[in-house]
Specification:
This protein is mostly beta strands and 127 residues long. The chain is 0% helix and 51% strand. The radius of gyration is 13 Å and the shape is globular.
């Protein structure tokens, strides 16, 4: 049974930090790129951070670059997102997902390249 479970969300004040985790089971974690995505109220889901299958390259959306860090632990089948200097505009439901094709880098062009979505974890940043 495939399970992708995000955790670590919550309520935090602006300027604070959170660390999200994404635990995967029932599907190969490696050698696939993984990503973090979010959907803010009234907006479409967007990709914000991608990590390559080797973990040696990353992509960040401009909105989070320099504040968020994506990482992976293949031994634990877990993906992470360290979020620092949080802003009210970071308030959203955060999701992780795996690239459908193996052995790919951290480039990002379409949500359709990803599957095995988790249920999401809510992050709320108060100003």
């Amino acid at each position: 049974q495939v399970q992708v479970v995000e955790s670590g969300g919550g309520l935090v004040q602006a300027g604070g930090s959170l660390r999200l985790s994404c635990s995967a089971s029932g599907l190969p974690f490696d050698p696939y790129a993984w990503g973090w995505f979010r959907r803010a109220p009234g907006k479409e889901r967007e990709g914000i951070a991608i990590i390559s299958w080797r973990g040696d390259s990353t992509y960040y959306a401009d909105s989070v670059k320099g504040r968020f860090t994506i990482s992976r632990d293949n031994a634990k089948n877990t993906l992470y997102l360290q979020m620092n200097s949080l802003k009210s505009e970071d308030t959203a439901m955060y999701y992780c997902a795996r690239r459908l094709a193996p052995y790919t880098g951290a480039s990002y062009s379409s949500l359709a390249d990803f599957g095995y979505w988790g249920q999401g974890t809510q992050v709320t940043v108060s100003s």
